[in-house]
Amino acid sequence: MKINFLKCLAGVVVYLLTSSFTAPNGNYSTVKVKAPFPMQPIKVFNYPKQDFPITNYGAIEGGIADNTKAIASAIEACNKAGGGRVVIPAGTWLTGPIHFKSNVDLHLDENAVLRFSDNPSDYLPAVQSSLEGMEFYNYSPLIYAFRCENIAITGKGTISPKMDTWKIWFPRQKYYMDAAGKLYTMMSTNVPVEERQFGNE
């Protein structure tokens, strides 16, 4: 499941990795690209070579113990140390929402499985989100990044929600359409974002 940003550059050939430089908020490299249109070099964050295994923060393997706090603690420590890898070792790790912080590479080792809880209440309190460009507060996504930079998910592991609960949300049921209509009304009448609260009802 390794995410490679180069694959996102459809039809663009990366041909040269050039110099590194230090910016106020970290160390970066630049990648020049050969494209059929003008394009500035891509700035790539160089993650510090330091690992933060979730087991160092109390995570328990097996798919039963809730590791949400342990993963959050590892992410917090990684961020405060200037960045690096938060490592999910091989095994099955039950968790609730994962909230990124800047300069964190969430790395799943081979045979690691992040098993997300199927209890919707685990994804509260509501967080700021958006739907079709409309900002509001709702259940946290499984993986959430707000006002972050330099984040990544890498490795050969698997992200695996318990789908029995989540799949019933896929069709746009009446309650979804009613909530969407309420949000449209809030948007059109300039209700402040902080008052557009969903999920807590």
TrEMBL record:
Keywords, comma-separated and alphabetical: Lyase, Signal
Taxonomic superkingdom: Bacteria
SUPFAM superfamilies this protein is in?
Answer: Pectin lyase-like (SSF51126)
What Gene3D superfamilies does this protein map onto? Answer: Single-stranded right-handed beta-helix, Pectin lyase-like
Tell me where the signal peptide lies. 1-23
Q: Does the keyword Ribonucleoprotein apply?
A: no
The reply to whether Thylakoid figures as a keyword in the UniProt entry is: no
MF GO annotations:
lyase activity
This protein's name: Pectate lyase superfamily protein
Q: What organism, scientifically named, is this protein from?
A: Bacteroides luti
The uppermost taxa in this organism's lineage are: Bacteria, Pseudomonadati, Bacteroidota, Bacteroidia, Bacteroidales
